[in-house]
Amino acid sequence: MYKLSFFGLRLCLYLFRILKNSMRQEKKRINLAQITELKKDFESKAINTVCQGARCPNIGDCYKNKTATFMILGKYCTRRCGFCAIEKYDVEFVDASEPLRIAKAIRDLKLSYSVITSVTRDDLPDGGAKHFAKTINEIKTLLPSNKVEVLVPDFLGDTKSIDIVLGAKPDVFSHNLETVSILYDVVRKGANYERSLGVLKHAKSKGFRVKTGIMLGLGETKEQVFETIEDIKNINVDTLTIGQYLAPTLKNFSIVKEYTKEEFEMFKNFAISLKIKQVVSGRYIRSSYFAEANFKKF
Ligand code: SF4
What we know:
Layout: H1 2-24, H2 32-44, E1 48-49, H3 50-53, H4 59-64, E2 69-72, H5 98-108, E3 113-118, H6 129-142, E4 147-151, H7 159-167, E5 172-174, H8 184-187, H9 193-205, E6 210-216, H10 222-234, E7 239-244, H11 261-273, E8 278-281, H12 291-297
Helix pairs in contact: 5-6, 6-7
The protein binds iron/sulfur cluster.
Iron/sulfur cluster binds at residues 50-51, 56, 58-59, 62, 67-69, 286, 288-289.
């Protein structure tokens, strides 16, 4: 009896905390009419976007501007990161027709810059690297002047897989660190901080333009953010994006801290003082948000 009421009390406190955080979390207003058209278009072409899959807060802006981040290799992820809303499943069929469909969708939208990402596919021997390369090749064949940015998973640190992607010559190679080292075991199970740094370092060593992103608000300290920025500098990453973590659903991790505009500026200034070439920092910043504009500004 005592155990039950104690459990009940803890459950109530837990639910209260989730509710409080979700109510406190200031979200962007989304005009549904503006996103419906593109949503329907993608559905009719069986195309997945991370904008929808991950419930990105910027979807209203991006879809209104007829841009998106295309998510290849299916819509189910083999990892279970606590901050991500993408559905989880252990295996999924790889659709060989997807690369060309993505290229045609980019052509139909008249995009001059494409951002391609994927779910993590630990079930595939190459982690989906060949599919990434095929997608880049299809885009470059159909639209030779199109710039392609890839936002890849860590491929379990397999440099052969990374080289397959690099072989297709993306214009920007991106891999998100997402959070500070100490939180990997909590919010990014299955990933490894050093391994992710290694992925970026490998691409940089091959002369590629390299980009990464981190989210704040998952329980890190300011000192840990500074250390992460130093690690990013030490491997000569070209572009760093810093944004606020916003829980996409009630099932995801709750926000531990909301950072102020001044704090985002402080981290940006610190990164600039270390001479990271391009730093974009702010509440709604995501690595793919205004990716083309940032590419041109670089
Ligand atoms: S910021 Fe990126 S993921 Fe979010 S809606 Fe825009 S393109 Fe999609």
